[in-house]
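Hi C.,

You asked whether I'd gotten around to modeling the 213-residue construct. I have! Everything is below, sequence then structure, no commentary in between.
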Amino acid sequence: MSVDHPIAVSLTSAYLLGSIPFGYLLVRIIYGSDVRQSGSGNIGATNVSRTSPALGVVTLLLDALKGTAAVALVLLWVHGTRQLAFAAAFASICGHMFPVWLGFRGGKGVATGLGSFALLTPKAVLIAIAIFVAVVVAFRWVALGSVVASASLPPLAWALGEAHRTSGASGVLNRSQPLLWITCAAVLIVLRHHGNIRRMLARSEPRFRALSK
């Protein structure tokens, strides 16, 4: 399938897919409440799990899948253009963080980032997941695992050869390295955890209770 304006259509579609606030919708539909009014006020899986652990898992999966779908559509729609797919991955993460439907106040992008890059940098994503699990088990801070895993993704993707220049796009996208999109996504995710980072430094960040002794 071809489109007249593949870059604009692909990035807009990726943003809109990423902006679907599954956590907010699930809690609103099932419990009739606004997840933004409880816990951390976030619409992501961690905060949703404070209302319902089961819904937290469902939110995690759906947030990851919408990122994967955004990238998959570009790979299929624009004849496998990987360069544009990296940009679409970043756009879907921005959609989750700044959803137009919720006044641009969304989540932190970890699950959507995982899903977005899973098709593009699968080996790096798998190692980042392992890092996340190891950090959470060791320190019982989900936010710390998210920050460390996100920060590790760009160097992992580069070292494993999954973030080198690709061909098939023109203009500004062709002059950019895939590593740029991964790095921008990682930096944005880390910055979205600024409140968690402050609380961890103050040792007031809640720890993951499932791993408590």
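If it helps when you're writing up: Residues 167-172 have pLDDT under 50 and may be disordered.

Thanks,
B.
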